[in-house]
Design goal:
4 helices, mainly alpha, 150 residues
């Protein structure tokens, strides 16, 4: 039996059925590819992008805190001193939050993050020591802490 021997209605039904079957197949392929693309995008966002953002924020914090320490040293009123101390505390807390993101999302060795956080903690101890010197009125010793190479 040839295709030409079929009635026109049957030929139309077969043609339409073939088109619908191909359309269904195309929809399934598109669905699978979309799911794959979404999984890749989600992985990209949740790991390298979030890590890069956390590192970028830590870089900003690392550049802000010395400036705020100078502001603290140059403060002429109790309000300026309080404001500088609050900004330093906010940045330190923000840094801890970004370290948590790095611990959660970083795909490299944990030693990298641990070393970075240890250095930040050491820096925090030096910062607290300088603040204590300022509060005790030992301005010249506190100034020595923020000089380059100190």
């Amino acid at each position: 039996m040839k295709l030409n021997d079929l009635k026109i209605g049957t030929q139309l039904r077969l043609g339409l059925g073939t088109i619908l079957a191909l359309l269904l197949l195309l929809g399934i392929v598109a669905w699978v590819q979309t799911d794959t693309l979404w999984a890749q995008t989600k992985g990209l966002y949740e790991h390298p992008f979030m890590v890069r953002r956390a590192i970028g924020k830590l870089e900003v914090i690392a550049s802000n805190i010395p400036r705020q320490m100078r502001d603290l040293l140059l403060a002429e009123s109790p309000h300026e001193t309080t404001s500088a101390l609050q900004n330093i505390k906010i940045d330190a807390t923000d840094a801890e939050r970004h370290f948590a993101v790095l611990y959660d999302r970083y795909l490299g060795p944990r030693d990298d993050i641990t070393a970075l956080q240890d250095d930040f903690v050491k820096w925090g101890v030096q910062r607290d020591e300088m603040i204590k010197l300022l509060q005790d009125g030992k301005i010249s010793e506190a100034t020595a802490h923020i000089r380059p190479g100190a």
